[in-house]
Amino acid sequence: MRALPCILAVAAALQRAPRRFATPAVAARRNVALRACEQNLSKKGTVTLVGAGPGDPELLTVAALRLISDPEALVVADRLVSPEIRSLVQGELRVAGKAPGCAEKAQREIYDWCVEGVNEGRRVIRLKIGDPFVFGRGGEEILEFRETLGLEAEVVPGVSSCLAAPLAAGVPVTHRGAAHQLVVSTGYGRDGSSPELPYYDENRTVVLLMAVGRLGKIVANCLEAQGFPRDCPALVVEQASSPRQRTVIGDLSDIADLVLEHDIKAPATVVFGAAARVLHATAPHGLMDERAPAARLDVLETVAAAIPEPKPYEFLGGKTAAKVR
Questions:
Q1: Where is the Tetrapyrrole methylase domain (predicted)?
Q2: Cys-Cys with 131: which of 160, 212, 220, 293 at CB 3.0–4.6 Å?
Q3: Active-site entry in 56, 78, 131, 251
């Protein structure tokens, strides 16, 4: 049961209680109770942005696991957060349907849910795939909560898919003799635009998040305008680190076709560059034969129950508004 309706009911009952025959001691206790109700009614809840990592619950941080295990929390999760991680939520869970073409509507729904929870005095956990500050709109959400709620959201970092997903697919994004640079980009810019990748460098690995839906367009731009060779190695990993992980490997001449052939969908991470072939030198073009291990949810639930509540601290000695645990 939520706290706010209970507080309202108690306050109303105290107001209706007969005063004529109340002793001074009873009246004093009633006034104290009324003041406590007024203080509770004026209290706002909190918002914490939490990184859920790429999908495997065992890649959650200790702080993230503790927060989503709070039975009193309202957890507002993105659609792409894995079902294994969502199953660990102990409180109320609401999942936003950020399907292609509906992202802005879903984002508005997320804000509305968070405002509702905060105004009810609840702890709101904004659960985001990967890391909140790596193409996760985390900064935008903090600014929104600042403006609409007048509060500073806390932030719990997560394992970003830009590093964890290639690793899960057996790709060292840096490797001597193959890549000494790493570029990370989103496939979708503001208002649906396509970010322009830097000109081709044979010693650079390019990792793209949120790009699988327009991979053909991105590949065409790389070949026509950015100097990428058609035989540049390319790899796409879907639902990295989860039991449903699938990976296709090829080069820029066929990677977009392979994604369509095998119906690779988001969440997926794209890798261009020689590093994609370092550990897969003999793998044929197509769907790779590999699976990620299943997560031990029973172990995680036991760990979550034993984690104490820490005190929050701030970035840079309190100089930054966003807090981190």
A1: 46-255
A2: 160
A3: 78
